[in-house]
Specification:
The structure holds two protein chains of two kinds. By secondary structure, chain A is an all-alpha fold. Chain A has helices spanning 7-11, 17-36, 39-64, 72-88, 94-116, 121-141, 166-189, 191-201, 203-208, 213-239, 249-262, 267-283, 293-303, 313-328, 332-345; strands at 151-152, 156-158, 161-163, 241-242. Chain A has one domain (35-345): ABC transporter involved in vitamin B12 uptake, BtuC (Orthogonal Bundle). A two-stranded antiparallel ribbon of chain A has the order 1-4. A two-stranded antiparallel sheet of chain A has the order 2-3. Chain A is globular. In chain B, strand 1 and strand 2 (136-139) form a beta hairpin. The longest helix of chain B is centred in the first third of the chain and has 31 residues, at 2-32. The chains are: A mainly alpha, B mainly alpha.
Chain lengths: 349, 291
């Protein structure tokens, strides 16, 4: 059952054989996925995988450590630009450029974590928000980073392989995503993860218990920024072209929305939230071509709204999802899943 | 020297609209501890309501503007009543997410209805009219903004100081359960503060329309208003006003002397620096938290 008998049972990666079995099924499915679907859906999977990495990183900060960040687009931009600059201008190989730029992002995360030691609530949110805005503005103004024109991704070569298509890139991305997800799950189960949770629940109490606030809070920012930086570097190769306007405040808000919708403080929730909102984000970009509701929306827009602004329905939908989730299920999809599970386990009662 | 005075003058004018937004946010934050990210878009939808009345239906201005303010108040009431009051065990993060969600809904509605292109608001004063005061040129709109902001501030001050309702709002802000015990219907007070802050934000929005009018016009003033509220301590009305004028002036001076490109981000750098020294703003008392 759910009772833990010793520490190692608590920190075990797979809590039971069933979990391991389903994990393996998932791995097989992910490996077979590109052969089952059309090219576009491979791109969708890549896009969602990027979101998963960011959201897991942001959840470590927001869900587990209880800090707010509205500036993750900044780390994302640092990762993306760092990787491309290191590869094109300094001719680093991809597998070196990616972690190095993620490390740069985590250095910025550490620096942002320093004022965050003393801030909370609205103060922290405005500080991180300002960080995100400033980073994109600075990058956009420096000619070395391509300025407003943006940057094109170079050809991706790893050892003997040339990863030109979405399908090729899919495998690299999935390997990294799985590694990073397992890594996050491990991190949360160890001493560090418990320190994060203690800080979230009561930081002063945690400090009296011997949790070094300075170390762990900045560490949370740095880890989160590292994840986001990795995702940014990979994102540059999914889009193959990046420009400063991409990394807007809206992007940070989307990341936060994914964390909240998926479930604060849960890795599985992060994945669910990233999948749901990432998929919706791509689907709603051309909303009028959706089956059934597309034509209805078109006539509705013609008679009451404007046809040029119809793509803004995605704002409305995302806003609604965020508000409704917060009102009715503050733990998000994960909370819903827990409730359903409990209901079926104790069914007749 | 003349340049300097000119920049300070336009900084004060910009600061006035930040001050109104900041005041609006502080009014809500003090009563319900919600950092209201939807403030800008609440103003936006009211402003477009005014635009619709004036432009589509040809309603004269002396009816349209009061109607807009009434609309803004009702909008605030509705949002508080239908959304914010329903939140289960609210914490700061949850409130931030809810208000961001509201913001996106309102923004989506406005840009769905009106499209993303720029509109010309039939505002009685054009932004290009200006007059000379000595050797400094000040636009009429800037003077009007400053004047309206001052009137709003004085009204708010008088309201909180002398009216019964204002006293009730202050009591609710200080201690909700005690206020309830004294017979104040705190739920209504919350609703009322949302309406009031929506009106203040709407005035700021209306004063910004002659310069630019499009669905994203309130982002920057909202963020700057929020920044100045944070600078002033988030719970202090005079603090927010002071912070707003500080930001407005510093921003303009920075734009004039250092770099025009980074003008709009310098505010956030200042915020971070100030918060490093005084973590809860310049004017707020720092409460020692209990575990």
């Amino acid at each position: 059952m759910d009772m833990k008998r010793d520490y190692y049972e608590d920190v075990k990666l797979f809590t039971s054989g069933v979990v391991f079995f389903w994990f393996m099924v998932l791995m097989v499915f992910l490996a077979a996925y590109p052969f089952l679907v059309k090219n576009y859906y491979v791109y969708v999977a890549n896009y969602i995988a990027i979101n998963i990495i960011v959201v897991i990183g942001l959840n470590i900060l927001v869900g587990y450590t209880g800090q707010i960040s509205l500036g993750h687009a900044g780390f994302f931009a640092i990762g993306a630009y760092g990787t491309l600059i290191l590869m094109t201008k300094l001719s680093f190989p991809f597998l070196l450029a990616l972690p190095v730029s993620a490390l740069i992002a985590s250095v910025f995360g550490f620096l942002l974590g320093l004022p965050a030691l003393r801030l909370e609530g609205p103060y922290l949110s405005i500080a991180t928000l300002g960080f995100g805005l400033t980073i994109t503005r600075v990058i956009g103004k420096i000619e070395y980073f391509g300025g407003r024109q943006g940057l094109h991704a170079p050809e991706l070569v790893i050892g003997p392989w040339h990863l030109n298509t979405d399908r090729d890139f899919y495998y690299l991305l999935m390997v990294i995503t799985v590694l990073i997800t397992v890594g996050a799950r491990n991190l949360i189960k160890t001493r560090v993860g418990r320190a994060f949770v203690a800080i979230r629940d009561a930081d002063i109490a945690a400090e009296t218990m011997g949790v070094n606030l300075v170390f762990y809070k900045t560490l949370a920012f740095a880890v989160s920024a590292f994840y986001t930086g990795i995702a940014g570097g990979l994102f540059a190769f999914v889009l193959r072209f990046i420009e400063p306007e991409l990394f807007s405040l809206f992007m940070s808000i989307m990341f936060l929305a994914m964390v909240v919708v998926g479930g604060l403080g849960s890795i599985m929730g992060s994945i669910a939230g990233a999948c749901l909102l990432g998929w919706l984000d791509l689907q709603l970009r051309n909303i009028l071509s959706l089956p059934y509701i597309g034509s209805w929306l078109e006539s509705l827009s013609k008679s009451y709204f404007s046809l040029t602004g119809v793509s803004n329905i995605q704002f409305i939908l995302f806003g609604l999802i965020m508000v409704l989730i917060m009102l009715f299920e503050p733990l998000g999809i994960f909370g819903f899943w827990i409730r359903t599970k409990k209901y079926w386990k104790t069914w007749p009662f | 020297m003349l340049d300097f005075i000119q920049m300070v003058a336009s900084g004060i004018a910009v600061g006035s609209s930040y001050a109104l937004m900041g005041l609006a946010m502080v009014i809500i934050y003090k009563t319900s501890e919600v950092p209201n990210f939807a403030q800008g878009e609440m103003a936006l939808i009211s402003v477009f309501f005014a635009f619709m009345l004036l432009d589509h239906y040809g309603v004269p201005g002396y009816i349209a503007f009061p109607a807009t303010l009434a609309f803004a108040a009702v909008l605030g009431f509705i949002l508080e009543f239908t959304v914010l009051r329903r939140a289960k065990n609210p914490n700061v993060l949850g409130m931030i997410v809810i208000t961001i969600g509201l913001e996106m809904i309102l923004l989506g509605l406005v840009s769905w209805k009106f499209g993303a292109d720029h509109k010309d608001m039939p505002f009685p004063i054009s932004p290009y009219e200006s007059f000379a005061m000595g050797k400094i040129f000040v636009s009429t709109l800037e003077v009007l903004t400053l004047f309206v902001a001052l009137v709003m501030m004085v009204t708010l001050f008088l309201f909180f100081r002398f009216s019964k309702l204002g006293m009730a709002v202050k009591a609710t802000q200080q201690n909700r359960s005690a206020a309830r015990l004294m017979g104040i219907r705190t739920n209504r007070i919350m609703m009322f503060t949302w309406g009031m802050s929506s009106v203040v934000g709407c005035v700021a929005g209306l004063l910004l329309t002659p310069v630019s009018m499009e669905p994203f016009m309130m982002w920057d003033p909202m963020l700057k208003g929020f920044a100045s509220a944070v600078l002033g301590g988030m719970t202090s009305l005079p603090g927010a006003v002071f912070g707003a004028y500080m930001l407005g002036i510093i921003e303009n001076l920075f734009g004039g002397y250092v770099s025009i490109e980074f003008k709009s981000v310098v505010a956030f750098v200042i915020i971070v620096l100030v918060l490093c020294v005084k973590p809860s703003g310049l004017f707020a008392r720092h409460y020692v938290k209990k575990v």
